[in-house]
Amino acid sequence: MNLKALLTLATTATLLTGCATTPGTHSQPTTLPGAAILGNVHGGQQPVAGATIQLYATGTTGYGTAASPLITGTVTTDPNGGFNLPTYTCPSASAPTYLVATGGNSGYGSANPNLALMAALGPCGNLTASTFVSINELTTVASVYALAPFMTGPTNSYTSIGTSAANAPGLTNAMTDVNVLVNTSNGSAQGSITIPGATIPVPEMNTLANIVAACINSAGGSYNDGSACGTLFFNANPGGTASTAPADTITALMNIAQHPATSPANIAALYSLPPANSPFQPTLTQTPNDFTLALTFAGGSLSAPSALAADASGNIWIANAAANTVTELAHTGTPLSGSGFTAALSTPSAIAISADSTIWLTNQANNTVSRLASTGTPYSGSPYSGGGLNLPQSIAFDSLGTAFIANRTSITTITNNGATLTNYTPAAATSPLALAVDPH
Q1: Which of 53, 150, 199, 378 has its CA 20 to 30 A from that of 77?
Q2: Is 369 left (phi over 0), alpha (psi -120 to 50) or beta?
Q3: Would you give the distance in Å from CA 440 to the centre of its chain?
Q4: Buried b (16+ CB within 10 A) or exposed e, 49-58
């Protein structure tokens, strides 16, 4: 069986630079010199001349906070689209970085003020003098879709990419996703990180790249003016007014990634935007229902997967209804040791992970709830029964760690040690399929 995992789900741990101060040693500086790097910029297959290049480190004080430009001078591409970045200072070795190209002429008469392309690079300390970066529409699609949860608009979204310190691991994971989707050294689909059993959504990526290329490979335009850029900005505008419309291709793509299921008319207009001789092939053969991107994973003893949840490390846990097992995948989709776990499960239908990192599953076939440690080992007394459990099919937690389970006609609450607290029937509740607990 296959499992589709949306790219906007990204949380994994990262190693921060620094060491403790001990006699005879000193702590590492928070900044370090960065190596000069080479690259090029292409719109479709055309070199982009005169584009401005900037290297950014992501913001650290919240989602969508201002990124820090690391290049103090002005760097532009040569007639062949090439560039040579000077040295710079990294905020830290672990600081996530990305390159952006704006403006420039891709051979269509004049400079395009709407042109914006990017490539996410990962930790600043990993960049070396041998790093070569090819920036084009495919690297932009992969970078924007992976980083969309950390971006904000409505304009120049490439300057507003960041996260809070609490979710720095999520941003690190998002950078890893980029290198699964594309190879930033040559600008092609299928990244430098390969995952056995994973299918890259190449036709979807190429279709989105061609949509952006229709605007990139032009002299630009304005909102709803009939040009390729104007059509893109009109249909990639969740606000629906000229004041909320994007004015650059990165922000337009961010809007599509954050609102992939806009109206059918918008989706059809975007799908029809590229010309017949679009540069990226193969593409989707018909108008899609939405513009989501998903990696498809196989393996890890998946068997009729019925539900999934992500833990604090970014690992994905999947309930296998047919095999009565639980599969654990790394964020990259690689099955982890022990998958799938057997833990006295009986047609597990839902899975959730509590704040103390334990895994809970509802068992429809025998009306129980199982609780597992992060190693996949059942806790003493698991599976829990009684308490009115009856075809349990959904589970969620409140801030105190109490589990709420939706049954056929009732809601059961259970403490984290399996003790039943309540069982009650909400008004007009008939076969509830899902539930959620608000933070209040």
Answers
A1: 150
A2: beta
A3: 27
A4: bbbbbbbbbb
Q: Average the pLDDT over 122-140 and give the result.
A: 96
Poorest-pLDDT segment among 240-249, 311-320, 333-342: 333-342
pLDDT digit string, tens, across residues 64-119: 999 999 999 999 999 999 999 999 999 999 999 999 999 999 998 889 999 999 99
Percent of the chain surpassing pLDDT 90: 59
Q: Taking Cα atoms as reference points, which of 95, 6, 1, 16 lies closest to residue 331?
A: 6
Cα separation of 154 and 422, whole Å? Answer: 46
Q: Give the residue with greater pLDDT, 326 vs 54.
A: 54
**Stretch 343-351: mean pLDDT:** 89
CB 244 within 8 A of CB 327: no
Mean pLDDT of 140-156: 95
Tell me the C-alpha distance between 7 and 332, whole Å.
10
Tokens for 8, please give them: 């906007």
Instruction: Tell me the pairing of strands 305-310 and 294-298.
Output: unpaired
Quick one: tokens of 361? 């599953």
Q: What is the CA radius of gyration of the chain?
A: 24
Q: HSE-up of 273 (CA within 13 Å, CB side)? A: 31
Phi/psi at 121 (5° precision): -115, -25
What is the mean predicted confidence (pLDDT) over 216-239? 95
Residues 6+ apart with CB under 8 A from 225: none
Do strands 316-320 and 305-310 pair parallel, antiparallel, or not at all (unpaired)?
antiparallel
Tokens of 188: 């092609």
Mean pLDDT of the chain: 87
Q: What is the pLDDT of residues 383-426, one digit of tens each?
A: 988 888 999 989 999 888 899 998 888 888 888 777 887 888 87
Collapsing DSSP to helix, strand or coil, 288 comes out as coil
Whether residue 191 has pLDDT greater than 70: yes
Could you give the count of Cα atoms lying within 13 Å of 123 in the half-sphere of its Cβ? Answer: 15
DSSP 59: B
Q: 29-42 burial, b if ≥16 CB within 10 A, otherwise e?
A: eeeeebbebebbbb
Q: What span, in angstroms and rounded, lies between the C-alpha atoms of 35 and 49?
A: 23
Separation of CA 49 from chain center: 31
Residue 280 exposed, middle or buried by CB count within 10 Å (0-12, 13-18, 19+) = buried
Closest CA to 279 of 210, 211, 212, 181: 210
Q: Considering only CA atoms, which of 17, 220, 187, 26 is closest in space to residue 115?
A: 220
Question: What pLDDT score does 21 carry?
Answer: 31
User: Contact 64/148 with Cβ under 8 angstroms?
Assistant: no
